[in-house]
Amino acid sequence: MVEQSGSFADLSLEVMLPGHESVLDELRRLVTELEAHPAATGRTRWNWFPNLMDRPAGGDDYVVYLVGSITLFSTGVDWLDVELHLAWDPHRVVSASVNVACWCSENHNQHSVHQSYWAAETDAALVEAFTEATAVLTRFLDSTRTDPDDLRTAAGLPNPRSHAEAGRPAQDAGSGA
Ligand SMILES: [Zn+2]
């Protein structure tokens, strides 16, 4: 079960963060500013998982219930995006991450080359977490880095041999004569 939105301002934060009504406008202001970054405009998508909104009983898995992503590069088989999460870990946290597609021989789908977490249980912690997370992501957008190869190399991860090669249709070999 997922509900989607193109902008943070359209999310039902009153439902996602019950009891924190007094800081929701501040959270909206912070994220709307991030979404207005020139590198983010038109590239933002929010997915909310209402069935995961309650803190899981027992278990200490990292469970994301709201994810906002800004896609900076994508060919379908390779990508670079930044994400902001609301998640249980097992208490509520906000996280900011920079993610690239995986090109390991074993496919892990993607890797987070940067990830930070902030506790977000109280009004004050929520504001601080969103302030820090949006600042981290804004700094990454400011860096204008859009090449996942560079980030994988810096993280010691393998790259595709070349994007041209990865995206090239099979050669029509053996059709001569
Ligand atoms: Zn991998």
Automatic annotation (TrEMBL):
<feature type="region of interest" description="Disordered">
    <location>
        <begin position="148"/>
        <end position="177"/>
    </location>
</feature>
<protein>
    <recommendedName>
        <fullName>YbjN domain-containing protein</fullName>
    </recommendedName>
</protein>
